[in-house]
Amino acid sequence: MLNLFSKENRTGKAKRNILYMLLIKGTGILINLAFVSLLIDILDIQNYGIWITITTILGWISFFDIGLGHGLRNKLAESIAKKNDTLSRQYVSTTYITLAFGVVGLITIQLICMPFINWANVLNAPQEMNDELSLLVSWVVFLVSIQFLFKLITSIMLAFQMPAFSSLIVTAGQLLAFLVIYFSTKVDLEFSMLQLGLIVSSAPLVIMFVASILVFKGKYKMYSPSLGHFRRDLIKPVLLLGMRFFSIQITAMLLFQSDTIIIAHVAGPESVTEFSIAFKYIGVINMIFTIISIPFWSATTDAYYRKDFEWIRKTINTLSKYWLLMVLGGILMTIAAPFFYNLWLGDSLKVNPELMILIFIYYLFYLRWVMYGSIINGIGKIKLQFYVTLIEVIVHIPTALVFGAFWGVNGVIVSMILVGVINSIWPPIQLKKILNNSARGVWNK
Questions:
Q1: Residue 56 falls within a domain, yes or no?
Q2: Are 435 and 312 in contact (CB under 8 A)?
Q3: Do residues 37 and 345 make contact, with C-beta atoms less than 8 angstroms apart?
Q4: Cα separation of 377 and 383, whole Å?
Q5: Could you tell me if residue 81 is inside a domain?
Q6: What pLDDT, on a 0 to 100 scale, did the predictor assign at position 4?
């Protein structure tokens, strides 16, 4: 059995992974920023806004693994903490086989539904683009569906407290897509949106496939999936936990990723571009803070099952200090935005100061949720999270539409901020109850 989860090893692995992930995710951030400039050069402001809206919809589809990745992550971390290698492999095998059937079902639904959707209307794009957009979305949805199965390797690495390796897989996929497009433009190849979509969707799939072979043929061969280790009775615990995460993912998707669609309809594709770029720019602090918090998810699962509540409390205090650093960094980035926009995008787009400040305020509250959410998700007490998020969806979408009708993109962000305020209030209350063993009812589910 690999010695992964001693108390000292838990903290040490978290620190090392934070350092590695800062390097890996830092590279990913640079690739993302370079990708924006590259795609705006290839497309134009309007078509880039359409592209961003499509990627948002694809982000929705990426949730449709019905939470099995998160369910496997927690159950696998739990079985490893119990030093049960056989059960660990059975969890891996059962999840892969179950998800494979789900992927076939999703592709079948896609083939049935796609011909009946007018994507030009959905994306508020010119009607003459409908045929190209329909073909683009069909191919990309197919490739993203296949990714579900191979993406499980990232959940497995997270369960083994190896988020740096998991992040390396994701970043390598981004880098491959960027390099293919970048060097193609250097030899004067022209791209349609369809070709871009195929490259961006295929590259991560190639990397995940290679990573899966390397992992299951190497050090972690004992955990490789096989038909012989499939256990029908394990579907239920993984699926039940996965469905809890899935229900939260769906409501969170409607909550956080509906904004691009709303902005496209209340302010147009050009405003989507303005919003998206400002969101990516200030979102650097979110990326950094997420890098810091991710290693503590599976570590918290282990600590909770070992009843090491003091370690969890110390982790919350540590993350609070990092949150303050992110706030300071966000203030500096907001002030320096005109300089970095000019360096990054040249004359393509100018800073909207009001938009930038509102997005920073949103992230100020959102990062509080990221801090507590990584701990709550590791513990697995997520029923309250679902209820709160569902209520927020019901309130946010109509509020964003109304505010957007009056104040455009700024109104949508104001609605997002109200949600962020709510999500900074309830999580610390739940965690305090759990760690003091006073959580009852929905607070403890």
A1: yes
A2: yes
A3: yes
A4: 10
A5: yes
A6: 44
CA distances from 129 to 31, 253, 339, 372 (A): 28, 26, 36, 43
101 Cβ partners below 8 Å, 6+ apart?
none
Please tell me the distance from the alpha carbon of residue 56 to that of residue 62, in angstroms, as a whole number: 10
Provide mean pLDDT across the span 59-85.
75
Residue 2 covered by a domain:
no
The per-residue pLDDT for range 149-198, each reduced to its tens digit, is 888 898 888 888 787 888 888 889 889 988 888 888 777 667 677 788 78
Position 326 in a domain? yes
User: CB-based burial of residue 336 (10 Å sphere; 0-12 exposed, 13-18 middle, 19+ buried)?
Assistant: exposed
**Structural domain span for residue 71:** 7-444
d(CA 52, CA 61): 14
C-alpha to C-alpha distance for 424 and 415, rounded to whole angstroms? 15
List the structure tokens of 213. 């072979």
CB contact at 8 A, 144 and 107: no
Choice between 391 and 345, residue whose per-residue pLDDT is larger: 391
Q: Would you give the distance in Å from CA 77 to the centre of its chain?
A: 20
Give whole-number Cα distances, 189 to 42, 194, 410, in Å: 10, 14, 38
Tell the residue number behind the tokens 């999270």, with chain if given: 385
Residue 353, helix vs strand vs coil: helix
pLDDT band with cut points at 50, 70 and 90 for residue 66: low
Virtual torsion, Cα 78, 287, 332, 37, nearest 10 deg: 180
Q: Are residues 370 and 289 in contact, defined by beta-carbon separation less than 8 angstroms?
A: yes
Residue 100 CA to residue 106 CA, distance in Å, equals: 10
Q: What is the pTM of this model?
A: 0.66
Task: Specify the length of the chain in residues.
Answer: 445
Domain count of the fold of the chain? 1
Confidence tier at 11 by pLDDT (50, 70, 90): low
User: What does the alpha-carbon distance between residue 57 and residue 122 come to, in Å, rounded to a whole number?
Assistant: 10
Q: What is the pLDDT of residue 256?
A: 61
